[in-house]
PepSY domain-containing protein
Amino acid sequence: MKRNIVIAAVTAAALIGGGTATALATTGDDEGSARQAATTRPAGDDARDDQDDADDRDDDAGRAASTGISAPEAIAAALKHTSGTAVSAELDDEDDGGKVVWKVDVLSGDSTWHSVSVDPSNGKVLGAQGDDEDDAAQVRAALKGSSVTAEEAARALAGKGVVTSVDLDEDGKGKSWEAETHKSGGAGQDWKVDLKTGKVTADRADAQDDDDADDDQD
């Protein structure tokens, strides 16, 4: 009944105005379906995201194969140049120019951030620049009472493959070092290293994401 009323009203308005109109009538169930269609993420988007993640891993594998300086060595070189606490280290394409460098983030004693670039072929420090970050207090709080440094966390993963990144996870209750390794052939794996004990565990969330990506490809 309501459907007929709506159509009649729209048609009348069109005739009065001397123009044409298109009537769209929906029931309560139709509205629910419309909302669901608007908020449901297309499956193709998820597949593209999974492919992007796979491409990123392939890039990391290529970088790992080309480096002669390990993550612990890069961190040590950065700290020798800029004193402080290393909070992260990552093999990075500098300015997307294709040149791969180690980027080591160092928090100095005066709570100033420094990004130190280290040549992955010989360990030479290429330069350092200050970063405007306001999370120094949060990082220091996360590291309070910890006994495992970023360098030690990277060394703990030596048997898992080539470490391409190590970073402090200061969010939530399970604070830890997060790291990524790559083995020959490009296989990548994310890990967590306990800040106090140095215990290494596989990142289960990452493993689940990989399983989901494999299922999508199948």
In short: The longest helix spans residues 43-66. The helical segments are 2-17, 28-39, 43-66, 71-81, 136-143, 150-156, 204-217. The radius of gyration is 26 Å. The longest strand covers residues 85-93.
